[in-house]
Amino acid sequence: MPRVSKAEAEKNRAIIEQVSSRLFREQGFHGISVADLMGAAGLTHGGFYGHFESKDALAAIACARAFEESEARWRKRVGEAPDRAAARSALVDGYLSARNRNNAGAGCPVAALANDVAREPDDKPVRGAFHAGVEQLLDILASVQPGDDAAANRQAALAQMAMLAGALTLSRATQGTPLSNEILAAARAALLPEG
Q1: b/e 35-71 (16+ beta carbons within 10 angstroms → b)
Q2: Is the dihedral of CA 58, 101, 32, 117 positive or negative?
Q3: Contact 67, 136 (CB under 8 A)
Q4: Smaller CB count within 10 Å for the chain: N or C?
Q5: In angstroms, rounded to a whole number, what is the distance separating the alpha carbons of residues 195 and 190?
Q6: C-beta of residue 96 within 8 angstroms of C-beta of residue 107
Q7: Which keywords label this protein (predicted)?
């Protein structure tokens, strides 16, 4: 079998990362095998270790990629808003939407991966990737708080992130019941009392 070119290998690696980022958010790190990941990427299982040292290494890369996607969406929403209040409202509305609830594979990795990451040993690289990603999103959330006190804005962002992720997780867990939408609406009302 001929070797693939460097460009083809890079393309294949990017596909594996993209597919893994989606599938890990949908099924968890241990909910899908390397063979299934590679199959979903349209590649053979045997090629995996030519791209990644281990499934753990891929989990960290896929986690970082998921956070990069979320960060880009958040920055876009903030950039399109006329002021901080509108930006905060856009972030909350997007996060607590039925679309986000119904699409874990493309959604925020905080709600999708937190439980999996919490079960991983401290020395696993995915823990560092998750921590870095949470910090990125917290920075964005802190930047849309109404005041200019950095410490107070971070505290508000921490509380809001916890409510966002918790509400989305509970809403996903109760999806298909009226409670699911009630959770999203209640969290939105608590986070955006002015509107």
Answers
A1: eebbeebebeeebbeebbeebbebbbbbbbbbbebbb
A2: positive
A3: yes
A4: N
A5: 10
A6: no
A7: DNA-binding, Repressor, Transcription, Transcription regulation
Specify the residue for token string 């930006």: 87
What is the chain's length? Answer: 195
* Containing structural domain, residue 49: 6-191
Distance CA 16, CA 74 (A): 24
Q: What is the pTM of this model?
A: 0.91
Q: Does residue 39 sit within a domain? A: yes
Task: Tally the domains of the chain.
Answer: 1
Tokens describing residue 37: 């990941």
Residue 1 lies in a domain: no
Task: Extract the tokens encoding 92.
Answer: 């909350």
Q: pLDDT tens digits, residue range 63-111?
A: 999 999 999 999 999 999 999 999 999 999 999 999 999 999 999 999 9
The CATH number for 13's domain is: 1.10.357.10
Q: For residues 111 and 107, what is the distance between their CA atoms, to the nearest angstrom?
A: 8
Tokens of 98: 């039925």
Task: Give per-residue pLDDT as tens, 28-48.
Answer: 999 999 999 999 998 887 788
